[in-house]
Amino acid sequence: MKTALAAPDALHPVAEKRADESGAPKRPAQVGSVPGVMKAVTHRRYGEPEVLALETLAMPVPGPDEVLVQVCAAGASIGDHHIITGKPYLIRATPFGGLPRPRNLVPGSAMAGRVAALGQNVTDFAVGDEVYGETTRGAFAEYVVVAAAKLGPRPTSLSFEEAAAVPWAVTALQALRDSGGLKPGQKVLINGASGAVGSWAVQLAKAMGAHVTAVCSPRNLARMRELGATDVIDYTKEDFVTGGPRFDVVVDLVANRSLTEFRSVLTPTGAYVACAGGGSDWVGPFGRLIVLLVMSLFTKQRLKPFVANPNRQDLAVLRDFVDSGKARPFVERRFPMAEAARALAHVGEGHAQGSTVITIAG
Ligand SMILES: NC(=O)c1ccc[n+]([C@@H]2O[C@H](COP(=O)([O-])OP(=O)(O)OC[C@H]3O[C@@H](n4cnc5c(N)ncnc54)[C@H](OP(=O)(O)O)[C@@H]3O)[C@@H](O)[C@H]2O)c1
What we know:
Quinone Oxidoreductase, Chain A, domain 1; Rossmann fold; 2 domains; globular; binds NADP nicotinamide-adenine-dinucleotide phosphate
C-alpha cells in the first residue's frame, strides 16, 4: 500500500493483499468483551430529526464477513438527514428507506471506533484495532456491524471525532479522480465547497495539482483559500455561470443551477460530476439524473451521475494523505449521542461548515 502523498499519483489506490486471499487458514470469530445490550439512536418514523430517540437495543452480531465496531464517533451528514426525514419521498422505496416506516432502526453511516468482534471470515483485523469507515446504517449507536471491506485502519494523527469526518473524503476523492478524471494543471470548480464533502474536495483537488475555484458564502471565503483554493467565488455577490467555458471538471455539491448552465462553464470535453441532492420533495435528484444520462448521449462533455463507493483501498489512500499532513478534517460542531437530533437538524439546514460529528464513546 502506498504511504505518501508526494505526487498526485498517490491519490490512486494500490491493490491491498487481503489475508483471506493469501491462502492463510480462516480464523474463528474473535469476540472481545462485548455487553449484551447497547444504547442507540433510533428512527421509528419519518419526520424532522426530533423523531429520533435514544433506546437500549440488543447487541448486533456480525455476519461472517463483518466486523462489530465499538463506535467512538459518527459523522452526521445531509444524507442521514434525507434518510431521517424520508425526503425526497422516493428514498423510502430504496434500501435506505422503507415503507410505510423506516426499515433500518438505527441511522448513521460514517464512523470511527475500535474493533469489538470479528465474523469468522475476517482475518485482517483484530479485536481492539482502531478503525474507520462507512456503513449503510447503524452508526449512531454504541456498536455497529460494518462489512470488513468498508473498514480501514484509522488515521493515527487524528482524534476519533476527526477520523469520523474522513469518510466524506472518499466521496470527494472518487468524484474528482474517478468520475471527473482530474489531471494536474486542470481547472476544477467545486460548487458547495465549504461543507463536509466540499472541504475535502478543495484539499484533494489542490493535492492533485489542479487549479481550484471554490464557490461558497462570504463567511467561508478565507477558509477555502487556506484549504488550497486558488480562486474563490462568493455566491452572494458573483455568479460562476458568467464567464464562459473555462473548467475541465465541475464537482456539483448543490444542484442549484440547470444542467445547461453547468455545461456552459465546462470546456468542450469537460466533466460535470453530479453529486448533489436538489430536486423536488418527491423524486429529489433522480429526475435530473435521468436528464443528465440522456443529454450525455449527445455531447462530448462528460456528464456523470455520481454515487460514492466506500471501500478499504480509498480509506487507506486517505489515511495516508491525512497522516502525512497533506489535509485535515474541519469538524465544525460536536454533539453528544443524546443530542443526535440537534446534530441532524444542524446539517439539515444546508449550511454546515465542514463536518458535524456525534461523540459516542471515549
Ligand atoms: N452521490 C453521493 O454518493 C454523495 C455522497 C455524499 C454526499 N452527497 C451529496 O453531496 C451534497 C453535499 O454534501 P455535504 O455533506 O458536503 O453537504 P453539507 O455539508 O450540507 O454542505 C453543503 C454546502 O453547500 C453550501 N451551499 C449552500 N447553498 C449554496 C449555494 N447556493 N452555492 C454554493 N454553496 C452553497 C453550504 O455552504 P454555505 O453555508 O456557504 O451556503 C454548505 O456548506 C449533498 O447534496 C449530499 O447529499 C452525495
